[in-house]
Each structure stands twice: as C-alpha cells, then as structure tokens.
Amino acid sequence: MKKKMWESSLSSWLLSGLLITSVLCAVTVGTVDVSLAEAFGSIVYGITGWESFASYGDSAVYDIIWLLRLPRIVLAVLTGMGLSVCGVIMQAIVKNPLADPYILGISSGASLGATAAIMLGLGAFLGENFVGLAAAGGAFAVSMGVLVLSGVGGRSSPVKLLLSGMALSAVCSAFSSFIVYFANNREGMQTIAYWLMGSLANAKWENLAVICPIIVLGTAFFWTQSQILNLMLVGDAAAITLGRDLTRYRHGYLVLSSLMVGFVVYSAGMIGFVGLICPHVMRMLTGAEHRRLLPASAFAGAILLVWADVLCRTILPRTELPIGILVSLVGAPCFVYLMVRRSYGFGDAR
Description:
Blueprint: H1 2-26, H2 36-48, H3 54-57, H4 60-94, H5 106-120, H6 130-150, H7 158-183, H8 186-196, H9 205-224, H10 226-234, H11 236-241, H12 246-268, H13 274-286, H14 290-314, H15 323-341
C-alpha cells in the first residue's frame, strides 16, 4: 500500500513538473521570440507586482506574455484538465472505456445552447458572456435529461445512461442544425463554425477567473471520491453488498461533470478526444485505481493542450489552426493505435 502511494505521488510530481516546464517553454514560442528569462520575469511581475521585476513590466514583451500568450496557455491547462477528468468520470459512471462527454451528449447540449444564443440571441440579457452561459446551461439541461430518461421504466443503470446520452446527443445535433438552417444568418454561421472547431484565442483573465475555480475544485472533489469511483468499476451488485447505492453518486457526478464541461465549452469551444485519449494512456501507465488515475489524467490533459496550442500558433505561417481540428487529427489515429497495440484491464482497480 505504501509503495503504491509513493508511486502515485512520484508520478504526480513528475507530471506536475513537466506541466510547469511546458508552460514556461510555451510562452516563449510564437511569432515574436522571447527568452525564458524574459518570460519568467514578466510572469512574476504580472502575478506579484514586485518592484525588482518592474523593468519587465515596462517592455512590449510583458504585453505579449501577460496579455496574449499566458491567458491562452492557462486556458489550455484548465481545458485539458477539465476534459480529461470528466472523461475519467464518464468512463467510471457507465463502465465503458469509450465514454466521454461527447458520448453522453453533454457537449452536444452545450453546442445547442451556444448555437441558440448566437443565432437567436437567446440569453442576450445576461451580458457579453451570454453565449458561454447558454452553453453551460445547455450542458446542464442535457445532463438532467439523461438522468430523467435513464430512470424511465425502472432504476438507472450504466447502459441506460449511455443510451440516453447518445439519444439526446442526436436530438441536440438535430436541433442545432435546424436552427442554423432556418436562421439564415451568414455571420452567425461563420461564428458557430469557428466556435465548434475550438479555439483558445479569446482567452481573457476575467473569463479565467470564472472557469478556474470550477475546474480546480471539481477536480479536487472527484479525487476525494476515488473509492466510490473504484466501486463503480466493480459493479452495482458488489457495491450494494458493501453498503453503497451507486445510483445517487452517478447522478451527482454527472451533474458536476456537465457543469465543468459546460464552462470548458463556454471558454474554448468544442475540443474532442482529450477526455478519451488521456485517461486511456494514463490508465496504461498508472492502472485503473482512481486515486492515481485522476491526477495523472488531469496533468496529462493539461500538457497535451499546452503543446497543441503551441502547434496551432506556429504550424501555419501568419494564421492560427483551430485547436479542435489539430487535436482530432492527432487524437483519432493515436486512439486507433492504442486500441490495436495495447490491451488493459479496465475493471482492474487494484
């Protein structure tokens, strides 16, 4: 037991160190070359305001680092962390290693909310962030619909949750297409198309102040629920013999996951495969025990999106590739390769 805890702590420390290194390296990469010392000094001055670093605050490099690059890198960290953690939770809830926020329809609900906001002005009275709030509301509404639909005709089960999510995902996609077709708004269609491809370009510190507590606190909460998540892999019958009714836990976890996904979609648009690939890779390295798997997946997702953002900013001259496209192009072949080359025991939570 002590050996496993030590191994878990070591892997978390290694991944966290790799994440910090990735962030510091990523802020130096772009159309303007920035040294690591300049990047570090600008970040320290932006966070602390210390007079000893004031010289960095008076330079153009500070604006590039603090106002442009660092916010989108922080958003990449939070987005990757949130999607990976929600992927782990979804896979435990339905006992299916192929589950992620897209399979259960939550991302489609967020997409429908954003489409209605952009094309119909739904929720415009909520202020300039009404599109994001509509996306979060759509994700939450679909999660409630999944819970209600899965409970029709008896107790909810992992299979019924999965089927309910797939059905509602199809419904949301159909309604989104219906709105786009009849709204006849060319500018809105372009906005939706770009938003559905995913982008970190609109990252701002004020928006990060909203998403950061939700993702960090949600991740911390799920980490404390590792024992329950392990029981979900064992099955309901075994859990009941141990005095645990997993149905209410599934419902609560699904609602919290939908909230996290909604705010991720609100901030960065639709980005696929992160919640599918990162848990798979980390499960091969750390095993299926959630006390090790959750933090490892969170760090891995953050690192993946940090470097994906770097490639998006640099791979094409004088333009930026939407991050959702790049992640899908890389993620789909990687997923196929992992499924063909590796085998692992999904239900082994030792």
